[in-house]
Amino acid sequence: MISRTYDKDLIPNRFFDKLVDITVEDLHNMGAKAIALDIDNTVAVDSFYKVFDGVPAWVDMVKKAGFPVMILTNTWTARARIISRKLGNIPFIAKAEKPDGKNFYRAADMMGVDISELVLIGDQLFTDIRGANNAGAISVRVRPMHKEYVLPIHYIPLRHREHVFLREHGFGDKI
Q1: Quick one: 4-148 is in which CATH superfamily?
Q2: 19 by DSSP, 3-state: which?
Q3: What is the pTM of this model?
Q4: Cβ atoms of residues 45 and 79 within 8 Å
């Protein structure tokens, strides 16, 4: 059971099916001035190097619209570097220890924006969304794009807890 004291920090500011569904207009409407991207199940297959279709073009589009973009991920440095190259050598912070907020602030500082102008786009409530909300960033949840194959003993119960939480709070259609 999830404690009600954590309700607020697990509810994203916005929901989208996938990253490439988010438009430049959506970002402007959110008040975003910079974008931080999670990797796993947001831009790439969990624990692998395959970037989802359309993601490099999406990153180019938002960069051309004037948004600085970077990766903020809990994955290891070598993998973050490879994904960064696939997305046009965008900056990255690896081993970010999300939901800890320190690297959200670091990302905002690196991109020259206030934390309230940074949008974090990710798929996990307990790391991405909680971290963004607690830091004061704009949180956007996308549906996980792929099933986790590495560490299923960790991810199966985690995804179940997310689904229960979303259903209990009237977001069952966002699972």
Answers
A1: HAD superfamily/HAD-like (3.40.50.1000)
A2: helix
A3: 0.85
A4: no
